[in-house]
Design brief:
Elements: E1 2-7, H1 11-20, E2 26-31, H2 43-46, E3 53-56, H3 63-68, H4 70-90, E4 94-100, H5 123-138, E5 142-147, E6 149-150, H6 151-162, E7 167-170, E8 175-176, E9 178-179, H7 181-196, E10 203-207, E11 213-214, H8 215-223, E12 233-236, H9 254-260, H10 271-287
Length: about 290
């Protein structure tokens, strides 16, 4: 199977490519450094003719960034993947697309099922839900993988806050499940390998790290990591950006376990590794090195 990985300079692309290259798969990278300016009419020049599966590894999991750049979010979360889907459909290429827990409004009292319809409350979730619906209409041979919170996003938030103040407000009312880059790359690779073995199982799946937690408690866990200032105090309070966070983003991940045999790994076991991944990413960024 020839797998084309669409990625940016973020850590997921690098980690996923490294993991896929350890398999027997034929893997090609496609760097989209700026989705905002991507020429969607040039896909035939980007995508090799013998491609069997396109993996869109542009992982959008930060609703704050989406609100700051709604036009760019629309392009990256909807226009680009839909254009790829239309191209793939006409050439009988399968598509693996990432989505997130932000397609839900958080009013449900228990974990969301993969079959639950989206009710987004922010820009990011809105365009991701529109994208999901478009893909289901356009092509039957697709995998949509909704993910939990980006663990790296909240590690960065704690680090940035610790550099300027000793108090960090995080809402205890918002509950979800983080997932690390390395764990997400593990899951994506496992699904692709089973598709390579002939599994004709398509549709919407969900994955997040094991253990539900509030953002406040997650902040406490991150604050206890090495390299985080011991002077930082995490408090249970609603910051301005908290309005973008649904009260419940927990995902029921039994479908991906029952279909592909993929078990949830505890996100706590990936904390130190995620911190190291972000550190390496920062070093590469300073050196101007590409993610591949």
């Amino acid at each position: 199977m020839h797998v084309l990985v669409v990625h940016d300079y973020g850590p997921l692309g690098k980690v996923l490519l490294e993991r896929l290259r350890e398999t027997s798969l034929q893997v090609s990278p496609l760097l989209v450094s700026n989705p905002d300016n991507a020429d969607l009419s040039a896909l035939e020049h980007w995508i090799p003719e013998d491609t069997d599966l396109i993996v869109n590894a542009l992982w959008l999991a930060d609703p704050e960034a989406a609100e700051r750049d709604p036009e760019g979010t629309h392009k990256a979360a909807f226009s680009l993947p839909v254009a790829i889907a239309e191209f793939a459909r006409d050439r009988r290429i399968a598509l693996f697309q990432l989505s997130s827990c932000y397609v839900f409004d958080g009013r449900k009292q228990s974990g969301y099922l993969a079959s639950n319809p989206g009710q987004p409350v922010n820009q990011l979730g809105g365009w991701q839900w529109e994208c999901e619906q478009a893909l289901r209409t356009l092509m039957p041979r697709h995998i949509i993988l909704r993910t939990g919170w980006s663990l790296g996003r909240f590690i960065r938030k704690v680090q940035a806050n610790a550099a300027v103040t000793e108090v960090l407000s995080l809402p205890g009312r918002c509950v979800g499940q983080p997932v690390s880059v390395r764990d997400l790359a593990r899951v994506i690779t496992a699904v692709i390998q089973q598709l390579d073995c002939g599994a004709e199982v398509w549709g919407t799946f969900q994955y997040a790290g094991a253990e539900e937690i509030s953002l406040y408690e997650l902040g406490l866990a991150i604050a206890g990591l090495p390299q985080i200032s011991e002077d930082l105090h995490v408090v249970d309070d609603m910051p301005p950006w908290g309005a973008l966070e649904p009260p419940n983003t927990t995902l029921n991940c039994t479908k991906i376990r029952n279909t592909f045999g993929i078990k949830q790994f505890p996100w706590r076991s990936g904390l130190v590794g995620e911190l190291e991944t972000l550190k390496n990413e920062a070093v590469r960024a300073e050196a101007g090195a590409p993610a591949t």
